Amino acid sequence: MDGLEILDAPSPNHGERLLPISMIVLHYTGMESGAAALARLRDPDAQVSAHYLIEEDGRIFRLVAEERRAWHAGRAHWRGISDVNSASIGIEIVNPGHAFGYRPFTPEQMGALIPLVAEIKARHGITRGNVVGHSDVAPARKQDPGELFNWHALARLRLALPRPTRNLVDPGWPDGGFMLALERFGYDVTDPVAAVTAFQRRFRPEMIDGEIDMECRCILLALLLPKPQGED
């Protein structure tokens, strides 16, 4: 990749893609150290992998070639796609996660992630609405990259959708209407509370309670408009 130093650390855990690449899925590793996460992602018995891993010091490791299907998303769904692994590039960001002392991601990690996402997004023509978190595609199972992840840093460079903040209007949907709109936006709403929680974690991280309220309705309506208006 032009301008990015990538360290190769091949994983045997990959297969054939069955779909064209249309998504980027961001994860945290959720383990006590980057070394432990890297070892697990390369362990043939673990049956998990990702295309890239970003250490806390900003080093980028390539585990699986982009043309191959890495095993990072598990059971997942986004915008009509159920084989998310086949359609996505998976990026693991080293962070202990909620189980081991969740903390903000480092400036070095974000400094490495931004150009990596930019290059992948441009290379495959991925829309910003398809740059998502693991919790977005698997809301009933996952919380990562979590409420401390700086989505705004990506959104201000048009690498992800912004959080709508301007000209918000409450559409007044009943809860069932909100769930239909959330499904239209892309989420699996089989578990309604989990879906709302994942939506809040991504677009309103300061209050995550799984309850539909006016602010959630306003944000979702704005996201469904042709040009979501963010902070910048």
TrEMBL record:
InterPro entries: Amidase/PGRP_sf, Amidase_domain, NAMLAA_amidase_2, PGBD-like_sf, PGBDSf. It holds the Pfam family Amidase_2. Residues 11-146 form the N-acetylmuramoyl-L-alanine amidase domain. The keyword ATP-binding does not apply. Its EC number is 3.5.1.28. It catalyses: Hydrolyzes the link between N-acetylmuramoyl residues and L-amino acid residues in certain cell-wall glycopeptides. One of its GO terms (biological process) is cell wall organization. It comes from the Bacteria. Keywords: Cell wall biogenesis/degradation, Hydrolase. GO terms for cellular component: outer membrane. One of its GO terms (molecular function) is N-acetylmuramoyl-L-alanine amidase activity. The keyword Mitochondrion does not apply. Belongs to the N-acetylmuramoyl-L-alanine amidase 2 family. PANTHER family: N-ACETYLMURAMOYL-L-ALANINE AMIDASE AMID. This is N-acetylmuramoyl-L-alanine amidase. It comes from Sphingomonas pokkalii.
